[in-house]
């Protein structure tokens, strides 16, 4: 009984530690060419760049930015990435998507494509390019099982880095409105004393939250963004 | 005695099950079953027959090399769906042709016949990049009503998907294949009128239609 209560308290401690997590630093930079003009009925599309063969902008990062930013009450209506890409198939597929605003203007010469974009009320297209990678790791954890029970001992640590750049295109004015970059770094730790206790740095998630907050300020007109 | 007999039977069963498990341990089967969106854009003013052979509809890529596990990848149904959806929206009228070259319906401008030339894939541990990659190459043939070749071109498609936590190799590869098939559809749709022979064919058809409209108006 005592063993069980000790195990339960270790488990409770682990879950408490889990929620605290490792440390992350996020640096957001912004380059702005025009003020936000998102009006009632306008929509924003957030798309990931996936043309590189070496990395892929993670779909969950794009969903996270979209979900965080989507708030119709404050005037930000985000169209889910997959829904938009399917509705405009094949023009926004990884190898066919416009890389520059000029290519987008050319695409708008196709009446059906232009109509569909207008039906969606697209004002801004936000292209996010980048990825999160594990840059280094150290330590080791060993687990064993025996007649007396099972347990793990050791210590592991790893660093993660996120590097994303968001280009904001104004679809109606056919111009680049600006760029936002998010660099995040964090170290996660995993000490194991009988039970492994992960202290996870949520690097990608913090980059997402930082970028979404900055995008909100960027897209909304100055008086609405402060709401 | 019957205890011994039952014991032997159970052991034999266990042995054959273990043997089967060992034999199939390194064999992977992937069945891709994708649905694809209808393309949005201009239609070509042609009536086209589409012939998807049985080999194409049931295409399975099998690989059994010494340096790799055994893989059986069935893309037949997914590529049938893709070509039917994309070709079905590219032309003024598309007719599915059950037989080729005999018994073709009348009034076809072209008959399009796709074939799989090649399928390749790489796993993350082979490239040391955290992505599954797939390449598919299609040979495309366009014939006129009489069966003469009008154009032949190649479509290359590429798809990738990052390794995902708790996702099986089979599921990740199927996702990469679906991305590659979408890419094939995109190339087919956007590249059709860039094939010189087809560009000329469409221009001729367009000219004939314009003249017919002018004559009808007179």
Task: Give a structural overview.
In chain A, strand 5 (149-170) and strand 6 (175-196) form a beta hairpin. Chain A has a single domain (12-225), classed as Double Stranded RNA Binding Domain, CATH 3.30.160. Chain A is elongated, with a radius of gyration of 22 Å. Chain A is built from 7 helices and 6 strands; from the N terminus they run H-E-E-H-E-H-H-H-E-E-E-H-H. Chain A has 227 residues and is an alpha/beta fold. In chain A, helix 2 packs across helix 6. In chain A, 33% of the residues lie in helices and 38% in strands. Helices cover 42% and strands 31% of the residues of chain B. With 218 residues, chain B is of the alpha/beta class. Chain B is built from 6 helices and 8 strands; from the N terminus they run H-E-E-H-E-E-H-E-E-H-E-E-H-H. In chain B, helix 3 (76-90) packs parallel to helix 5. In chain B, strands 5-2-6-7-8 form a 5-stranded mixed sheet. Chain B has one domain (27-217): 2-Layer Sandwich (Double Stranded RNA Binding Domain), CATH 3.30.160.150. The chains are: A alpha/beta (227), B alpha/beta (218).
Residue share in helix of chain B: 40-55%
Question: Which strand-content bin applies to the residues of chain B?
Answer: 25-35%
Cα(first) to Cα(last) distance of chain A is 54 Å
Q: In angstroms, what separates the terminal alpha carbons of chain B?
A: 103 Å
Overall pLDDT metric of chain A? 87
